[in-house]
Specification:
Elements: H1 22-35, E1 56-61, H2 67-75, E2 79-84, H3 88-101, E3 106-109, H4 113-119, E4 127-131, H5 149-158, E5 164-169, H6 172-183, E6 188-190, H7 196-199, H8 209-216, E7 222-228
Parallel strand pairs: 1-2, 1-4, 2-3, 4-5
Antiparallel strand pairs: 5-7, 6-7
InterPro entries: SAM-dependent_MTases_sf, tRNA_(Gua-N-7)_MeTrfase_Trmb, tRNA_methyltr_TrmB_bact
Protein name: tRNA (guanine-N(7)-)-methyltransferase
Family: Belongs to the class I-like SAM-binding methyltransferase superfamily. TrmB family.
């Protein structure tokens, strides 16, 4: 399968941007086979995916530069994290960070997150994060936004009852889009009770490069939490 293949119905476009430096390319070749989640060998108990003993498992969809994923994994060594990132540059950064920090509670998946969600056991995730995803700003591309009725159903199936789905974006139309889709779903309840609940980053938030870019360009992020009912 070509790295430049575009996937019909997926939330991402090309997998490859600028050519990877030799060290990063080697990291993918050497480390990804060990850390990649094999869709054909997912255990009923997701905690068994990890080298370290973990009490629960969280999923981050589209981890980008891996700032949040690595921070969370390092801060919470007793929790297992699955990070999804099909873009090769971000994937290489995630692999490098796992190696540099010696993390044993991270697994990665380098393809469409919907494929992984469809194979995970029901009610197996303690949290799902979708942070500063590609907004696909042109109206004709909105169907490629990851938040959709179908994908919210996928997330709901994989989440434990009461577990959170967290969404962050600096694009107002995508925030409104997500609220509209989540609030019409029987599976989710928006937890905000006051403006600060969605205007301020969550406790322990380390920031991401995409958030920093938005701030530089004068945009403010929104931080939404939906509870699986």
């Amino acid at each position: 399968m070509s790295d430049d293949t575009r996937y019909e119905g997926s939330f991402f476009g090309r997998r490859r941007g600028k050519p990877l430096r030799a060290g990063r390319a080697a990291r993918i070749e050497d480390d990804l086979p060990r850390l990649r989640v094999d869709l054909e060998a997912i255990p009923d108990d997701l905690t068994r995916l990890f080298e370290a003993p973990v009490s629960e498992v969280r999923l981050e969809i589209g981890f980008g530069g891996a700032e949040h994923l690595l921070h969370e994994a390092e801060t919470n060594p007793h929790i297992g994290f699955i990070g999804v990132e099909p873009f090769l540059s971000g994937l290489a950064k995630g692999l490098a960070g796992v190696a540099e920090r010696g993390l044993r509670n991270v697994r990665l998946y380098d393809d469409d997150a919907t494929q992984l969600l469809d194979r995970l056991p029901p009610a197996s995730l303690a949290r799902v994060d979708l942070l500063y995803p590609d907004p696909w700003p042109k109206t004709r591309h909105w169907k490629r936004r990851f938040v959709s009725d179908q994908n919210l159903g996928r997330i709901a199936r994989a989440l434990k009852p009461g577990a959170p789905f967290r969404f962050a974006s600096d694009i107002d139309t995508y925030v409104a889009w997500t609220l509209e889709h989540a609030r019409r779903s029987d599976a989710f309840e928006w937890t905000a009770r006051r403006a600060a609940d969605w205007r301020e980053p969550w406790a322990g938030w380390p920031g991401t490069r995409y958030e920093a870019k938005a701030i530089r360009e004068g945009r403010r992020g929104s931080y939404l939490i939906f509870r699986r009912v």
